[in-house]
Structure to design on (491 residues):
């Protein structure tokens, strides 16, 4: 492959900022070239559905949007969605392939290599530049022979590599230096620069350390990126830990999201953070006195329903029935029903599970088939929350196994509401990306609380442009252009 067509961003660990760097570079490079993102293998429960109904990691969808292109399955050919008990659902080129343990998955790793080679070639045929992302830490020495996303991608493309380290974790110089020392020689020779991420303070205090790191490794530091709040969707569940520090007390409306053990697509609720205090509540925590409760999606509905019941959280939720809105998204919608009939698709054995009984629906899992589609639906009159937007359209996407029967749909033929209109379930992910839905819910909650509804503040600058500006300002872009065989101005 043409090495100057590819750039690989690796990290010293998970959550060091690889995805954000790729996103920003995609936005910068797309101003002058046709650019596509790529990640050979993603392990995440936050996913996205492409226009042709393929499921990929949400990070690559975000990166494609930053590049101004439609996300495709080739941008994330392998997606692993953990189900628990060391088993993950394997998604190949956007389609469910099988549930596999780590051992059985790695037994067929050569076949997976062929899948990513094909995806890379198709992208190379269509785009001028491909900005690639690794996963976790690059120096996982126990995985080198079967790693497709770091070492595998590096060897297939022979691309120049930038290594990212997170200074907020501590030990950033040791982690960068140690990673370089542990990389195989054929990969190490392609590392062309370091990025230090999430720094708080004056970068001048790092100068002696940066100089010594460069002297020891012969690799330049391309820049130091500041710690700042990204306004793009989170990549995976690791980011939930950041929510406690990000949660703002300036909002008076309080929404409790149940943090299920296998929570998926919690990015559904990030748009609400602009208007409300969104709390993620563990099953063993007190719910407090929320203005609304949301049960989110999950990778394993029956297992999380069992944990919800056993922990006592189901009873805590029921105590609010008829008092405040209780919403369920996807798996959370299924849990709100009377029962779930599983033929063995979810739990491995045929069983019937009692739901929370707050909605008049029954869900059946009878085939290893997943509905993955982008949709547009019309809001129906269903109660006090959304009646004022009845007749308006909403967009979203569905990612679910199982089918639910409903006599009182909420969005077109989707979802269900109870008689009061306060308990609502839907299969629509991305629901709160719709301003009409977001405002209808928060306005209702504010009025019930007796406070004034305040419209959300939407910054003037596009979040992708904001990220790109930070990267342009703090990184040596001329060196990055040089890695890609471009001139000093990026052409």
């Amino acid at each position: 492959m043409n090495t100057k067509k590819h750039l690989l961003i690796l990290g010293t660990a998970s959550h060091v900022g690889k995805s954000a760097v790729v996103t920003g570079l995609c936005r910068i490079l797309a101003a002058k070239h046709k650019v596509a993102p790529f990640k050979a293998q993603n392990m995440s429960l936050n996913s996205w559905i492409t226009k042709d109904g393929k499921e990929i990691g949400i990070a690559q969808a975000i990166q494609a949007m930053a590049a101004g292109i439609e996300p495709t399955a080739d941008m994330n050919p392998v997606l692993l969605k953990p189900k628990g008990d060391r088993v993950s659902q394997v998604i190949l080129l956007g389609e469910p392939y099988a549930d596999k343990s780590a051992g059985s998955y790695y037994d067929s790793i050569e076949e997976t290599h062929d899948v990513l080679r094909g995806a890379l070639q198709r992208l190379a045929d269509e785009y001028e530049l491909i900005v690639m992302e690794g996963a976790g830490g690059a120096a996982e020495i126990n995985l080198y022979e079967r790693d497709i996303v770091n070492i595998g991608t590096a060897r297939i493309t022979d691309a120049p590599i930038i290594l990212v380290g997170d200074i907020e974790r501590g030990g950033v110089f040791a982690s960068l230096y140690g990673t370089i020392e542990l990389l195989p020689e054929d990969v190490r020779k392609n590392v062309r620069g370091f990025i230090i991420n999430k720094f708080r303070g004056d970068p001048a205090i790092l100068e002696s350390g940066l100089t010594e790191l460069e002297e020891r490794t012969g690799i330049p530091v391309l820049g130091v990126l500041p710690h700042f709040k990204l306004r793009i969707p989170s990549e995976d569940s690791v980011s939930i830990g950041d929510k406690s520090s990000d949660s703002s007390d300036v909002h008076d409306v309080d929404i409790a999201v149940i943090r299920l053990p296998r929570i998926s697509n919690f990015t559904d609720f990030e748009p609400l953070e602009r208007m409300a205090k969104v709390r993620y509540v563990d099953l063993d925590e007190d719910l407090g006195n929320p203005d609304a409760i949301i049960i989110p999606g999950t990778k394993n509905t029956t297992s999380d329903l069992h944990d919800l019941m056993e922990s006592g959280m189901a009873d805590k939720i029921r105590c609010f029935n008829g008092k405040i809105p209780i919403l369920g998204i996807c798996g959370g919608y299924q849990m709100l029903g009377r029962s779930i009939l599983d033929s063995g698709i979810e739990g491995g054995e045929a069983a019937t599970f009692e739901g929370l009984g707050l909605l008049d629906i029954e869900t059946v899992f009878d085939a290893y088939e997943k509905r993955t589609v982008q949709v547009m639906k019309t809001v129906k009159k269903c109660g006090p929350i959304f009646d004022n937007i009845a007749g308006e359209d909403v967009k979203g996407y569905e990612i679910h196994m199982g089918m639910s029967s409903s006599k009182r749909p909420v969005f077109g033929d989707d979802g269900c509401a109870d008689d009061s209109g306060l308990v609502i379930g839907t299969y629509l992910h991305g629901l709160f990306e719709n301003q009409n839905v977001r405002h209808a819910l928060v306005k209702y909650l504010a009025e019930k609380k007796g406070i004034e509804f305040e419209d959300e503040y939407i910054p003037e600058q596009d979040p992708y442009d904001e990220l790109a500006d930070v990267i342009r300002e703090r990184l040596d872009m001329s060196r990055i252009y040089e890695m890609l065989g471009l001139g000093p101005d990026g052409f």
